[in-house]
Specification:
Elements (H helix, E strand, L loop, with lengths): L1 E2 L5 E2 L4 H7 L17 E2 L16 E4 L5 E5 L4 E5 L13 H15 L2
Antiparallel strand pairs: 1-2, 3-4, 4-5, 5-6
C-alpha cells in the first residue's frame, strides 16, 4: 500500500492485477503452478510450508531469500538468508518451510 495525501492507504496494484498475477498460468504442465512472477501453492518449488492456504504465493531467490504471502491471513513473510556463505551446494528449502510453518501457526486462529 501507498499513503495518499491525507494519510489514506492506497493499494499499489489493482485487485484485477493481483488476481491475474496470482492465478495459475501453467495449467497442463506437470508439477507446475505458477502465476506471473509467483510460485503458487502446489507448485514443485512451493516453499509455503504446511499451514498456508491454497491462495498463498511467493518467490524465492538463489541465495535463500524468500517472500511468501498468505492473503487469507493478511500475512507476508520475508526470509533473508545467505545460503552461499559456506558454498553453493547447500539448500534452505527445509528452513523456509519451517519458518513459514512457525509464523503461520503463530497467527492462525
Amino acid at each position: 500500500e501507498q499513503t495518499a495525501p491525507g494519510g489514506q492507504p492506497q493499494p499499489v496494484l489493482s485487485v484485477a492485477a493481483v488476481r491475474a498475477a496470482t492465478r495459475t498460468h501453467t495449467a497442463g504442465i506437470a508439477g507446475a503452478n505458477r502465476g506471473l512472477g509467483w510460485v503458487l501453492k502446489g507448485d514443485r518449488w512451493d516453499a509455503s510450508g504446511d499451514w498456508m492456504g491454497p491462495r498463498s504465493y511467493g518467490h524465492t531467490g538463489f541465495t535463500g531469500t524468500s517472500l511468501w504471502v498468505e492473503p487469507d491471513l493478511d500475512l507476508a513473510v520475508v526470509l533473508l538468508t545467505n545460503r552461499v556463505y559456506y558454498g553453493r551446494s547447500g539448500s534452505v528449502g527445509v528452513l523456509r518451510a519451517a519458518v513459514h510453518n512457525a509464523i503461520t501457526a503463530a497467527v492462525r486462529d
